[in-house]
Amino acid sequence: METTFTVATHSQEELIDMTYEVRDIVRNSGIKDGFCIVYIPHATAGIILNESADPNIKTDFLRALDKAIPLHSNYLHDRIDNNAAAHIKSAIIGASATIPVKDGNLELGTWQAIMLCEFDGPRSSRRVIVQVHKD
Ligand code: ZN
User: Where are the chain's structural domains?
Assistant: First the structure.
Protein backbone atom coordinates (compact mmCIF):
# COMPACT_ATOMS: atom_id res chain seq x y z
CA MET A 1 0.00 0.00 0.00
CA GLU A 2 1.43 3.36 -1.05
CA THR A 3 0.43 6.86 0.05
CA THR A 4 1.99 10.17 -0.95
CA PHE A 5 1.72 13.47 0.85
CA THR A 6 3.49 16.78 0.50
CA VAL A 7 5.28 18.96 3.01
CA ALA A 8 5.98 22.68 2.62
CA THR A 9 9.28 23.90 4.07
CA HIS A 10 9.91 27.42 5.26
CA SER A 11 13.67 27.80 5.72
CA GLN A 12 16.79 27.01 3.75
CA GLU A 13 17.58 24.27 6.26
CA GLU A 14 14.96 22.75 8.49
CA LEU A 15 13.87 19.50 10.17
CA ILE A 16 10.16 18.72 10.04
CA ASP A 17 8.53 16.05 12.19
CA MET A 18 6.29 13.80 10.05
CA THR A 19 5.68 11.07 12.64
CA TYR A 20 1.99 11.93 13.02
CA GLU A 21 1.30 11.73 9.27
CA VAL A 22 3.18 8.45 8.85
CA ARG A 23 1.55 6.88 11.94
CA ASP A 24 -1.86 7.78 10.51
CA ILE A 25 -1.04 6.18 7.16
CA VAL A 26 0.10 2.98 8.90
CA ARG A 27 -3.08 2.81 10.99
CA ASN A 28 -5.29 3.44 7.97
CA SER A 29 -3.48 0.75 5.95
CA GLY A 30 -5.02 -1.95 8.12
CA ILE A 31 -1.69 -3.78 8.07
CA LYS A 32 -0.90 -5.11 11.54
CA ASP A 33 2.53 -6.62 11.13
CA GLY A 34 5.18 -5.78 8.57
CA PHE A 35 7.25 -2.73 7.80
CA CYS A 36 6.90 0.83 6.62
CA ILE A 37 9.16 2.63 4.16
CA VAL A 38 9.30 6.42 4.26
CA TYR A 39 10.99 7.78 1.15
CA ILE A 40 11.59 11.22 -0.25
CA PRO A 41 12.21 11.53 -4.03
CA HIS A 42 14.45 14.60 -3.80
CA ALA A 43 18.22 15.12 -4.19
CA THR A 44 18.55 17.98 -1.71
CA ALA A 45 16.49 16.64 1.21
CA GLY A 46 16.64 13.58 3.45
CA ILE A 47 14.93 11.46 6.09
CA ILE A 48 16.17 10.80 9.63
CA LEU A 49 14.87 9.04 12.72
CA ASN A 50 15.76 11.06 15.78
CA GLU A 51 14.57 13.18 18.66
CA SER A 52 12.05 15.90 17.95
CA ALA A 53 10.86 16.57 21.53
CA ASP A 54 13.79 18.88 22.27
CA PRO A 55 13.99 21.29 19.30
CA ASN A 56 17.64 21.98 20.18
CA ILE A 57 18.55 18.60 18.68
CA LYS A 58 17.36 19.85 15.28
CA THR A 59 19.55 22.94 15.56
CA ASP A 60 22.52 20.93 16.84
CA PHE A 61 22.12 18.42 14.00
CA LEU A 62 22.05 21.13 11.32
CA ARG A 63 24.99 22.99 12.91
CA ALA A 64 27.09 19.81 13.11
CA LEU A 65 26.32 19.00 9.47
CA ASP A 66 27.27 22.55 8.47
CA LYS A 67 30.64 22.11 10.17
CA ALA A 68 31.32 18.94 8.19
CA ILE A 69 29.82 20.27 4.96
CA PRO A 70 29.99 24.08 4.84
CA LEU A 71 27.27 25.86 2.86
CA HIS A 72 29.83 27.37 0.53
CA SER A 73 33.15 25.90 -0.42
CA ASN A 74 34.87 25.38 -3.71
CA TYR A 75 32.07 23.13 -4.98
CA LEU A 76 31.94 22.65 -8.76
CA HIS A 77 28.16 22.18 -8.72
CA ASP A 78 27.68 25.68 -7.21
CA ARG A 79 28.42 27.04 -10.71
CA ILE A 80 25.25 25.26 -11.91
CA ASP A 81 22.64 26.05 -9.26
CA ASN A 82 24.54 26.95 -6.09
CA ASN A 83 23.34 24.08 -3.92
CA ALA A 84 26.18 21.55 -3.83
CA ALA A 85 26.21 21.41 -0.01
CA ALA A 86 22.51 20.45 -0.03
CA HIS A 87 23.19 17.60 -2.47
CA ILE A 88 26.08 16.28 -0.36
CA LYS A 89 24.07 16.42 2.87
CA SER A 90 21.15 14.66 1.18
CA ALA A 91 23.43 11.89 -0.11
CA ILE A 92 25.02 11.33 3.30
CA ILE A 93 21.75 11.42 5.26
CA GLY A 94 19.84 9.25 2.80
CA ALA A 95 16.41 9.46 1.24
CA SER A 96 14.55 6.82 3.22
CA ALA A 97 13.90 5.07 6.51
CA THR A 98 12.42 1.63 7.18
CA ILE A 99 10.45 1.11 10.39
CA PRO A 100 8.97 -2.15 11.67
CA VAL A 101 5.19 -2.25 12.16
CA LYS A 102 3.76 -4.38 14.99
CA ASP A 103 0.11 -4.59 16.08
CA GLY A 104 -0.69 -1.76 13.65
CA ASN A 105 1.84 0.63 15.20
CA LEU A 106 5.24 1.94 14.21
CA GLU A 107 7.91 0.41 16.44
CA LEU A 108 9.62 3.70 17.14
CA GLY A 109 11.62 4.30 20.30
CA THR A 110 10.29 6.81 22.81
CA TRP A 111 12.58 9.53 21.49
CA GLN A 112 12.51 8.62 17.82
CA ALA A 113 10.59 10.80 15.40
CA ILE A 114 10.48 10.57 11.60
CA MET A 115 11.83 13.82 10.24
CA LEU A 116 12.19 15.34 6.82
CA CYS A 117 15.51 17.17 6.45
CA GLU A 118 15.28 20.19 4.19
CA PHE A 119 18.69 21.28 2.92
CA ASP A 120 17.69 23.55 0.03
CA GLY A 121 14.50 25.31 1.00
CA PRO A 122 12.15 26.89 1.31
CA ARG A 123 10.14 24.64 -1.02
CA SER A 124 6.39 24.78 -1.45
CA SER A 125 6.10 21.04 -1.98
CA ARG A 126 8.37 18.20 -0.92
CA ARG A 127 6.87 14.81 -1.81
CA VAL A 128 6.95 12.06 0.78
CA ILE A 129 6.11 8.48 -0.26
CA VAL A 130 5.03 6.01 2.41
CA GLN A 131 4.64 2.31 1.69
CA VAL A 132 3.29 -0.18 4.22
CA HIS A 133 4.13 -3.82 3.57
CA LYS A 134 2.88 -7.00 5.21
CA ASP A 135 5.35 -9.48 6.65
ZN1 ZN B 1 21.77 21.25 -7.71
Answer: 2-134
How much distance in Å is there from the Cα of 88 to the middle of ligand 1? 10
Q: Does domain 2-134 have CATH number 2.60.120.460?
A: yes
Residue 129 Cα, ligand 1 centroid: separation in angstroms? 22
* This prediction's pTM: 0.96
| Cis amide bond preceding 122, omega within 30 | yes
Taken in order 22, 24, 25, 30, the sign of the CA dihedral is positive
CA of 67 to the centre of ligand 1 (A): 20
Cα 115 to ligand 1 centroid, rounded to whole Å: 22
Q: How far apart are CA 86 and CA 80, in angstroms?
A: 13
Q: pLDDT truncated to tens, each residue of the chain (135 aa)?
A: 999 999 999 999 999 999 999 999 999 999 999 999 999 999 999 999 999 999 999 999 999 999 999 999 999 999 999 999 999 999 999 999 999 999 999 999 999 999 999 999 999 999 999 999 998
